[in-house]
């Protein structure tokens, strides 16, 4: 490194020197753009189909004078562990919903699946992704109350009425079981196309319900969770098994869910 940089002294600069140069001599947006281009040119980059977007506040940036800190919205490849690009969410000016379209506009979304938490479940972003040649997988929560209610009602068991047959469905289901960290996790995803012609959402391909059942092996305690979602991927594009994989890539275990303990 000393030879590559042609440094006069036989050692690398102190970290305060790097900080001074970064603060005074570099354009942050331009550096971010160049780093993003460099990462995309690496051999493994871009092979992953999934792009996850997530917002985080940088550790150590929250102070008494700045309780907001430095908040970044990041686009990364969970399958490859690479960050494609990140943008600062300006405090008191914008939020992640405002920054997400700008971030996605800098990326090649062709043949990619964008996943994110419920905050990014927005019609405009969904349309933007599809127009760019990609697909989306979103979690539906109370920020989209009517959509959430429609999906939840679809998967709710109908009341048993004497003399009436249960309505027919197209439900397709995939289960998984995982044992780790002293607990057993059972996941079941059920997908349906029945709302495609009724739900007001751009490019809807199917909706799904993801149920989890956690059993603590030491105590036998059971905890259940359920979440609902929608995607532009059709049943031919993504089976329930594939949707389970995409939910895992989306960090589904840390998403807010409807919970009940037994």
Walk me through the topology.
Blueprint: H1 2-5, H2 15-25, H3 28-40, E1 50-57, E2 71-77, E3 82-88, H4 96-105, E4 113-116, H5 123-131, E5 135-140, H6 145-155, E6 172-180, E7 183-192, E8 206-216, E9 222-231, H7 240-249, E10 258-261
Helix pairs in contact: 4-5
How much of the residues is beta strand, in percent? Answer: 25-35%
Structural class: alpha+beta
Radius of gyration: 22 Å
Mean pLDDT: 83
Number of strands: 10
Q: Please report the distance between the alpha carbons of the first and last residues.
A: 59 Å
Q: What is the ordering of alpha helices and beta strands?
A: HHHEEEHEHEHEEEEHE
The overall number of domains is 2
Instruction: List low-confidence stretches.
Output: 252-262
Largest sheet: 10 strands, mixed
Q: How helical, in percent, are the residues?
A: 25-40%
Q: Helix segment count?
A: 7
Tell me, briefly, the overall form.
elongated
Question: Could you please describe the fold and organization of this structure?
Answer:
The chain has 262 residues and is an alpha+beta fold. The protein folds into 2 domains: 83 residues, no CATH class; 104 residues, no CATH class. The protein has 7 helices and 10 strands. Strands 1, 2, 3, 4, 5, 6, 7, 8, 9 and 10 form a 10-stranded mixed beta sheet that branches. Helix 4 runs parallel beside helix 5.
């Amino acid at each position: 490194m000393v030879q590559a940089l042609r440094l006069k002294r036989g050692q690398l600069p102190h970290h305060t020197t790097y900080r001074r140069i970064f603060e005074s001599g570099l354009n942050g947006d331009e550096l971010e753009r160049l780093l993003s281009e460099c990462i995309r040119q690496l051999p493994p980059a871009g092979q992953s189909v999934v792009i996850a977007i997530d917002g985080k506040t940088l550790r150590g940036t929250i102070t008494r004078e700045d309780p907001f800190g430095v908040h970044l919205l990041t686009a990364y490849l969970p399958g490859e562990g690479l960050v494609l690009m990140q943008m600062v969410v300006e405090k008191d000016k914008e939020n992640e919903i405002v920054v997400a379209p700008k971030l996605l506009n800098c990326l090649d979304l062709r043949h990619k699946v964008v996943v994110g938490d419920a905050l990014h479940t927005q019609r405009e972003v969904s349309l933007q992704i599809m127009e760019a040649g990609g697909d989306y997988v979103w979690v539906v929560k109370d920020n989209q109350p009517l959509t959430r209610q429609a999906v939840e009602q679809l998967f709710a068991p109908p009341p048993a009425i004497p003399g009436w047959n249960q309505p027919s469905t197209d439900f397709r289901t995939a289960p998984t079981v995982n044992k780790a960290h002293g607990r057993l996790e059972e996941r079941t995803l059920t997908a349906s196309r029945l709302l495609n012609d009724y739900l007001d959402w751009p490019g809807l391909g199917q909706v799904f319900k993801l149920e989890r059942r956690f059993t603590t092996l030491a105590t036998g305690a059971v905890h259940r969770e359920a979440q609902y979602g929608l995607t532009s991927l059709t049943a031919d594009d993504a089976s329930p098994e594939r949707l389970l994989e995409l939910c895992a890539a989306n960090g589904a275990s840390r998403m807010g869910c409807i919970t009940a303990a037994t």
